[in-house]
């Protein structure tokens, strides 16, 4: 799984790929962390759980990233080392995961205001999965 930060007018975008949908979600979340910080510490912070449900895969990705932005604001931590397990359950998509919350006081963080649906894409490819997400900074 990998991600790349891309300039996007006044915003920043994350392009990610992974062999699995779960890996893709974790890669995009790690991209969100990289968009909010120049250097991520290798240690420190405690893991916290993340649970999200949505009606579609793009809605699940949006809600997951929105939940991470919320956790950053409420817990005053930068969610890093993201782990995610994505499943389709009937007419609903679910994500169970966790993140390591690095205290914002320990990093030189910049604010990522919100995830957007602008140009959002989640697609299965011959090699796995790809996503593109624009963040408002």
Automatic annotation (TrEMBL):
InterPro entries xrefs: Archease, Archease_dom, Archease_dom_sf
Keywords (A to Z) from UniProt: Calcium, Metal-binding, tRNA processing
Domain Archease, chain residue ranges per copy: 3-137
Keyword Secreted: no
The UniProt record lists the keyword Calcium: yes
UniProt signal peptide: none
Similarity comment: family membership: Belongs to the archease family.
Protein name: Archease
Taxonomic placement: Archaea, Methanobacteriati, Methanobacteriota, Stenosarchaea group, Halobacteria
